[in-house]
Amino acid sequence: MKxxxxxxxxxxxxxxxxxxxxxxxxxxxxxxxxxIGISENISLLIAFLTLVLGILVIVPxxxxxxxxxxxxxxHSGKLRAASRREFxxxxxxxxxxxxxxxxxPKAKVSSFSLSISPFLRDLASAxxxxxxxxxxxxxxRSIEDNEEHAIALQELASAxxxVGERxxxxxxxxxxxxxxRSIEDDRRRAIALQELASAxxxxxxxxxxxxxxHSIEDNEEHAIALQELASAxxxxxxxxxxxxxxRSIEDNEEHAIALRELASAxxxVGERxxxxxxxxxxxxAARPIExxxxxxxxxxxLASAxxxxxxxxxxxxxxRSIEDKQRRASALQDLASAxxxxGERxxxxxxxxxxxxxxHSIEDKQxxxxxxxxxxxxxxxxxxxxxxxxxxxRSIEDKQRRTIALQDLASAxxxxGERxxxxxxxxxxxxxxHSIEVNWVRDGALGDLASAxxxxxxxxxxxxxILSISRSSPxxxxxxxxxxxxxxxxxxxxxxxPEGEIISITSSIVTITGALITVARWWSKKHSTNxxxxxxxxxxxxxxxxxxxxxxxxxxxxxxxxxxPDRLKHYIDVFNQPSSSIQPLSAIFVQRNGKEIxxxxxxxxxxxxxxxxxxxxxxxxSAEN
Length: 625
Prior knowledge:
Structural class: mainly alpha
Number of helices: 31
Mean pLDDT: 75
Distance between the termini: 61 Å
Radius of gyration: 30 Å
């Protein structure tokens, strides 16, 4: 057990955060209680009990993770089959869990049970993988969150079906359907039912899958479920049923996808004529799609499927019919690559030239055309069309994308043994990168170039480029010195952080709400005594600036973010794309008194509760002014 607990804890970083927060909170609680006049011994006792109760709550979660790890190891063959000791541990974990939540009020038990539902689902999944069916079913049924409950039952049913326990699996699928239908949120209920329909289709429970799919009220999830059922039927060579389901789909996009996949499956078994009919129907279904991007994407995928089936003429016609120029250029590039792989080099070059002309005709030269040309240069590089790739790369207007295209081409040439030519292009890429005006974009381009040089074992050049980053960028501004934050500001900043969310769960479990109320009352009294002086001076905690800490370069800062928070969110999400070489790390809110509040934005602005809360303060300040 000692051997595996560290690995289990290491894989659950939230538990480490939980332990650290529990210790810090207990320490803060001790300080606050001592400051407001409670005796030192009583303050220490309350803080110690808070720490112990927090740890007791964590114990069942740790044990559940540990058992899940053991069972997965056992299933993968890294451990022997589950022994009597492991069964005792499993039972012990659930016993500790029961004891931990027994003294809590019903509402708090429910809140904790919902928060632990994903852990229990993982445990049920691990037990199913280890073929511990009875234990897996017991754990799955104990999950209170309906969505997690339905998923656990569905996964267990699928595992049972794979080992031939069809009757038991069908019972659990029906139960999973009942649980899924009890989910209150319409969207989540539709998604749960769609996933159940897909699981039934994968298990070749065709009739039940179709019934569940048709019962979904949400149009999008209903169409997705039917499309996946049609695709599963096609893979199983149930041609008639697959075509019937595909034709029943009302959503044009999913209808086209289902027909396209059915046609490709038919072509693979030699049913060429039938496949061609369905491909034409798929195109007819795609044309009325209202959303331009989705229509172009559907037609591009159809052209790709036709090329893979060597339906060259139809593939070219479909690709050329795409209205969106970026998608059309991309479809022609893919088609050219397919021709090149088939040995038709001359025709491939003709299509590459056509794709380049389409890319150059895109009106948005800085972004749209540059993106299409960069992708085109990449396709030519992969096909070892060195001269054309170099020509296209140099024609890219956006300097960052031109740098990437040149360095990728140089790396490919180096791998092909063209070292001298590669070094020339790397130097050219560096020259272009240094000409980028925006500091953080320039630094990101140079950083990517240094990484490419390092991968090519050009160590000295990589080091030189890295050093040029620090020389070309201005030194960071010194942060204004400020007095240490007061206790109320510390508590506020801490409780509005992501770790503070975990604290909220902890406090409800270990029943320390009373202590927090006491602290809040004391601070409210202190605030009321100073209300007169606070009215005479502007708020020292008012946010006066917002900066973004990026992975490279300077911290961008715009005044408009203070009055239009949505622009800040848009800026974060634009550079949070996987294709971006510069990623946002944190938003730094600067207060009038010089103090800073950092918010993690590395995962974007969506569902970022701390960011939303701070931006809501900005809206309040604007309304007051």
